[in-house]
């Protein structure tokens, strides 16, 4: 277990690096790019961390959500879901307020059905809070700004 | 029946029964006088197989046994046969198992180990219902669903035809068209608004498809929640108990099961003339078309043709329907013609007795321009015209030709690709069943496929004996003026009972809500067909008017209960409605009495 944990840490680091690359340098965040030597350059850009990102595939989810050293809010949403379109931006705002203490991952359930099914999503929007690869909280449906703020605060342990 | 009082007694009894089942190769719960029980016991005697019999009628607490068996197996009746701990069922099931060889297999104790109890091929109306029901009854179930893209590249999600390219988008687009009529009527009721009322195809298309997206997701979740394994891959048999599944990336997996249900549905037929697959669309494309189709030629006179032509015209498009012979084959022809005539009075053009011979592209675009050449079915005459879109709706083909049925030994009707089954939806291969649109001479309707799928699962795994009843199925064609029907057409009733033995009562009617806008008088029509030899039982029900589905559903229930003309007459109407016309039908067709409604 300890070994796995360590491996995960290292992995996470390199992934974080990639995420911080200026968008021009990171050709659609392909896996190969963080193996490239340019990685070391990236560290200086750490401040430009994006608050939210779209999950690309299962691997991406493992790397950027499960192995994240920050707590992550996973917003399971769908194109056809009206309430999702309201919640998404609100959640993004609530996450932005935390100035990098929490990340937000967006999962389109039609593009990544297996993930949504695996995480027990039945209705959308469903938001799952993950820390250290564990689900620590979740809610379904819409919430107002204040409710979202307190949800986010709880997740980051304030 | 003495209730089983204490839980402890109940549990003891259960343990006792379970012990009997576990410690004997064959156990028959029986009643000494029951002929079916005797038949089963005789079978085992004949096979020279030792069996343990419990004659419930000769035992003091036999009825408690029977109650407990019901709880354990879902079956109340005797005989109940258990072989090597497996519940075979009653007499029919035992005889069937003897016939198909599964009895010997059970007896020999060497149960083949399959990956699944049941694999369902096709995740549409029937397949989903069947797989969920079987899983709820504790079976290990897999369902495979895969949509082969149309020639123009359209595909869709889980749920089959009805949800994605059938009932649901069709009805929503029909509703869109009805709203246009409502907007026109509104002025007559005093609503005042600016002239410009326009329709935006993209808004409608997006809204409809969003709703479908939510349904696709709902189906997916239901499969997870009911523990059905779902695979998005194309299935074909490679052995009688084994299928190959190929996903969209071409990856193959293999799965085995004790039983299979085929629920692959149908896809639109093409014409087989130059240009059809290249330039024409079908209902599989229409509902998600990214552009408004413009001036449209609908080829065919199926209900799909009339419904699609109807709502496109209702959106204000220039629509022509090209018909080879009759409208709505199989439906009551008087009703079909009235529905068609109403469309004609509302601007839909009909070209009758012509068939297309080629379709050429004049200009690419969204939509482009197409030239259609057609020839008369009676003379040498040919005609040509230009359209933006050509929609083919000349019928549907069963998806049974590319699923390896030859490898499984399943017989298919070579003429139409349909699968013949017995009254339990079983094919000629005993462990393979078929439901839904691919069945021969059965209604091609979603609720029918669902009912058949559910009941099949309950018979296979729940000890039920209830079969799907394909008689008195109510249905509605959503033409601009809707047509609801249940039971026999006038033609079919005449053929079955003879013209002298039926009485047809009918009436035209004018819906109250049509009076103020002063439209469509003498177009709505009600008709029932009664069997004179059977107390004037209503054997055919036909309604052409607004809300036909809502009107017809309840009468369907009445007909299931065997309603007669007298029952209809004795029913008090709801006033003012359209449906109330059926409680006051007085004029028989034979009498030739006047049925027109005079205006004010
Ligand atoms: C335009 C239109 C309008 C309709 N309107 C109505 C209506 O108003 N009311 C009504 O009751 N009925 C309506 N129907 C009919 C209704 O849609 C069908 O009766 C119903 O869908 C039949 O269900 P099914 O389970 O037999 O097949 P389907 O629902 O067609 O499902 C079959 C599924 O199996 C999949 N499949 C096929 N082969 C394979 C394979 N080898 N491997 C994996 N998957 C496979 C197909 O892609 C499909 O998803 C309409 C149909 C059409 C076309």
TrEMBL record, chain A:
Keyword field: Disulfide bond, Electron transport, Redox-active center, Transport
GO MF terms held by the record: protein-disulfide reductase activity
InterPro entries the record matches: Thioredoxin (IPR005746), Thioredoxin-like_sf (IPR036249), Thioredoxin_CS (IPR017937), Thioredoxin_domain (IPR013766)
Protein name: Thioredoxin, mitochondrial
Entries under Pfam families matching the protein: Thioredoxin
Annotated Thioredoxin domain residues: 30-157
Cellular component aspect of the GO annotation: mitochondrion
Lineage: Eukaryota, Metazoa, Chordata, Craniata, Vertebrata
Presence of keyword Transmembrane: no
Highest taxon, organism lineage: Eukaryota
GO biological process: cell redox homeostasis
Family, similarity comment: Belongs to the thioredoxin family.
Species assigned in the record: Xiphophorus maculatus (Southern platyfish)
Automatic annotation (TrEMBL), chain B:
Pfam families registered for this protein in UniProt: Glutaredoxin, Pyr_redox_2, Pyr_redox_dim
One annotated GO biological process: cellular response to oxidative stress
EC number(s) stated in the UniProt entry for this protein: 1.8.1.9
GO CC term (a single one): cytosol
Top-level taxon in the UniProt lineage: Eukaryota
Database matches in SUPFAM superfamilies: FAD/NAD(P)-binding domain, FAD/NAD-linked reductases, dimerisation (C-terminal) domain, Thioredoxin-like
Statement: the UniProt record of this protein carries the keyword Electron transport: yes
Residue intervals passing through the bilayer: none
Needed co-factor(s): FAD
Protein family per UniProt: Belongs to the class-I pyridine nucleotide-disulfide oxidoreductase family.
PANTHER family: GLUTATHIONE REDUCTASE (PTHR42737), THIOREDOXIN-DISULFIDE REDUCTASE (PTHR42737:SF6)
UniProt protein name: thioredoxin-disulfide reductase (NADPH)
Originating organism: Xiphophorus maculatus
Higher taxonomy: Eukaryota, Metazoa, Chordata, Craniata, Vertebrata
